[in-house]
Amino acid sequence: MRAAILDGKKLAAEIRARITEEVTGLRAEFGLVPGLAVILAGDDPPSHSYVRSKEKACLQTGFHSEVYRRPESVTQGELLDLVARLNGDPQIHGILVQLPLPRRIEPQAILEAIRPDKDVDGFHPVNVGRLIAGAPAFVPCTPRGVMVLLEQAGIDPSGRRAVVLGRSNIVGKPMAALLLAANATVTVGHSRTAELAAVTREADILVVAIGKARFVTAEMVKPGAVVIDVGMNRVGDRLVGDVDFEAVGEVASHLTPVPGGVGPMTIAMLLQNTLEAARRT
Ligand code: GUN
């Protein structure tokens, strides 16, 4: 039997419709309009595309949206000045610095300059630490979206073996923390992991975020596993995930498509985090 498809596009649309209603209410009752500022530095084409999607989503949901596009030559000082200004702007409830930044810029210095209560990406060390400690925090959007997808599909990680492939600060590490907080037994696999296929075959829930097109084959998946594909790789003119969708679909019980799986959930969670930031003001 083929895997059930976890439809992130549909779920994200439902979440966005609910957020739009809440924003209408907030505006009517308190004159409050959630505001998101996005900073995009450099020429990375996928980043430009992601930021356009984020801007469009904000406007469709009734948010106030500001996008600051800066050239590859922007200095760290200029970015720090911009973050400082947005930290003090009462119209802005969330600040997102799109990664990767140009090579000369130290990303950690910029991320640490964002006020933790405006850090809707959850990348500031205060929010990272709070997540690990189990305290309320802004949770990075992609892993949060994966948890909502699992929950909506009735998949409870408690007591199950979860394997996260990839150890990035954006996805892998916070994903592992969330699955652990949900009482899964968590393993993080990465490029130096020995016998990787033996590790992934242990997984009841396999989350893949390594950025290699169709890397996970059917032989790497336990029959009946839930497979979440966070990858977005351009192959020719097609967008493909990190999982061989056709082959793994014959083995897994549940599988996310690319596109239309995790990607739309990331944007929905960015809106949700920004709404929560606005509500706290
Ligand atoms: N680059 C790739 N994914 C993300 C994300 O979720 N947030 C930011 N800021 N940059 C990214």
Walk me through what this model shows.
- Helix content is 41%, strand content 16%.
- It has helices spanning 8-30, 45-60, 76-87, 107-111, 125-133, 141-152, 172-181, 196-200, 245-248, 262-279, and strands at 4-5, 35-41, 64-70, 94-97, 161-165, 185-189, 205-208, 226-229, 233-235, 238-240, 254-255.
- Helix 2 links the parallel strand 2 and strand 3 (64-70).
- Helix 1 packs parallel to helix 10, helix 2 packs across helix 10 (262-279) and helix 6 packs across helix 10 (262-279).
- It is globular, with a radius of gyration of 19 Å.
- The mean pLDDT is 98.
- Guanine binds next to strand 4 and helix 6.
- The site of guanine has 9 residues, from strand 4 and helix 6.
Q: Name the CATH class of the largest domain.
A: Alpha Beta
Q: Portion of residues in helices? A: 40-55%
Total number of helical segments? 10
Unreliable stretches: none
Key structural traits:
alpha/beta, Rossmann fold, globular, three-stranded parallel beta sheet, 2 domains, 10 helices
Short description, anyone?
The chain is of the alpha/beta class. It has two domains: 31-115, Rossmann fold (3-Layer(aba) Sandwich); 141-263, Rossmann fold, CATH 3.40.50.
Which helices and strands, and how do they pair?
Blueprint: E1 4-5, H1 8-30, E2 35-41, H2 45-60, E3 64-70, H3 76-87, E4 94-97, H4 107-111, H5 125-133, H6 141-152, E5 161-165, H7 172-181, E6 185-189, H8 196-200, E7 205-208, E8 226-229, E9 233-235, E10 238-240, H9 245-248, E11 254-255, H10 262-279
Parallel strand pairs: 1-11, 2-3, 2-4, 5-6, 5-7, 7-8, 8-11
Antiparallel strand pairs: 9-10
Helix pairs in contact: 1-10, 2-10, 6-7, 6-10
